[in-house]
Amino acid sequence: xxxxxxxxxxxxxxxxxxxxxxxxxxxxxxxxxxxxxxxxxxxxxxxxxxxxxxxxxxxxxxxxxxxxxxxxxxxxxxxxxxxxxxxxxxxxxxxxxxxxxxxxxxxxxxxxxxxxxxxxxxxxxxxxxxxxxxxxxxxxxxxxxxxxxxxxxxxxxxxxxxxxxxxxxxxxxxxxxxxxxxxxxxxxxxxxxxxxxxxxxxxxxxxxxxxxxxxxxxxxxxxxxxxxxxxxxxxxxxxxxxxxxxxxxxxxxxxxxxxxxxxxxxxxxxxxxxxxxxxxxxxxxxxxxxxxxxxxxxxxxxxxxxxxxxxxxxxxxxxxxxxxxxxxxxxxxxxxxxxxxxxxxxxxxxxxxxxxxxxxxxxxxxxxxxxxxxxxxxxxxxxxxxxxxxxxxxxxxxxxxxxxxxxxxxxxxxxxxxxxxxxxxxxxxxxxxxxxxxxxxxxxxx
Length: 446
What we know:
Elements: E1 12-13, H1 21-28, H2 31-37, H3 42-55, H4 60-84, H5 88-96, H6 98-131, H7 135-141, H8 146-153, H9 157-182, H10 186-191, H11 198-201, H12 210-221, H13 224-233, E2 237-238, H14 244-280, H15 291-297, H16 301-304, H17 310-343, H18 349-370, H19 375-404, H20 407-410, H21 417-444
Parallel strand pairs: 1-2
């Protein structure tokens, strides 16, 4: 079987065992940043903003639980890739055969396209806020970011990882600064990390239910394509594939890297929800929770008083643009992984990028055209892409848990009983919640 992402596989050198732990951690760090990007894309932003706007701090517990589940799943992905030398798509194909693999590839591609739609919308709105570029033109401009990835790939995976980490750090600092100025209620924030039954029952008039948004947060936080991505890019490190001690060390540092970076994404998503709550909670649901409104609020003294500033609004729009560009890099790499892994089809990066982006922008252009550039309706499409991601998540979670819980496949690196139990419980709960969402959607249609 071909190596996963062969062009970067086994290309990053690792220090000798005698070197310091810090040097080793730095060498292994990077894949976690690429994975964390998927947990803070524009889809996360819109669900977190709406959650904070409509329900205050209520859904912070959902972000916390989703992030903890994500850390568990991503550690399993890293372990799978390091131990087997295959990514999740390749391992799943070996498990289920060609016919089912083709179906799983279609579902995975649709999930990637849903992610791309979120990135397109976020980037187009950011361009509109920063330079007043019409949405439909901004959507078309996003096709050009294919050249960004092509240029970066020439400098190697470490350059991409470094750039992504810088952008993540910038986004984190921007939101930390803006939330600090908004002066939120710290005690209420702390208590909101304890799950409440109100998440299942709360509903405001003319707004989505708390449960609906909570499921969108889960779909936006635990990203299906990240499970494939992580299992592949951890193999970019040049460790001894036949030495069990080397594998153990690689798994250890991959987990540390992943958990550190996912902690960044957790804090960023919390900060976005807190900012949405600070600016909009308690106001008319029809007038809150959108990117444009948040941008305007950061400039409006009547809404935010002393924190209002055009520079704050500009920082917000820049962070949104960086988020979209960050996520577009990882989306392309993941598309290559699932295509090669499930159906053994290899395309050049630029062809893959152009095809995926053109497919993704088509529904956005149609929506922008028929909705005449109404940002609220366009952003609603973005929310629904996150719901689809949540619905498609079990398709990747179930094979991952089965594979990493198999002693035959993983040997001494098999999941411990508690990790498997939590993973299967999370999957079961998600399937039940998804089923309930489908029933509610059907009922509301009649």
